[in-house]
Specification:
Length: 148
């Protein structure tokens, strides 16, 4: 799909980026059912009814936190790393862009004053949820895709 990028390194899916320019009628799931965090875009005409519903109690096993970032304002550079902490490459997100971080490791640089939402599985375990490591040097950074 145009305006949608699956960020892959080898056969591993690291992220799904949906640009603010994505517009398609209906329901579009970008994530596969195997991912513990689901991402979809929905566009319905006026008058469409979505039946009232509740969600059933379903036991799920989540091994790694996946997160969704929705950029409201500004620019954010996302740096992708392997789980072994090796830098791969970067993307820049702007207002209205959304990213589902699926696997690997990542870091961020705020390029313009930023407002964003973060959505992920909870409850948040503080520092037990992550392992921090040294970032790539500025000379290593390779930005792929639109630099906005």
């Amino acid at each position: 799909m145009e305006h949608v990028e699956q960020v892959r390194f080898g056969d591993q899916l690291y992220a799904i980026i949906v640009r603010a320019s994505f517009r398609e009628p209906g329901i579009h799931f970008f994530s596969t059912p195997e991912l513990s965090q689901q991402l979809a875009f929905m566009s319905h005409p006026q008058g469409k009814t979505i039946e009232p519903h509740r969600h059933n109690k379903v036991t799920r096993e989540v091994h790694y936190t996946q997160e969704v970032l929705l950029i409201q304002k500004g620019k954010l550079q996302v740096d992708f790393y392997t789980v072994e902490e090796t830098y791969l490459e970067s993307r820049v997100l702007g207002a209205g862009d959304i990213i589902l971080l699926c696997s690997g490791a990542h870091g961020f640089h705020v390029l313009e004053p930023l407002e964003m939402f973060e959505i992920k599985q909870g409850p948040y375990s503080g520092e037990n949820d992550k392992t921090r490591f040294a970032e790539a040097s500025p000379s290593e950074i390779r930005i792929k895709g639109p630099n906005l």
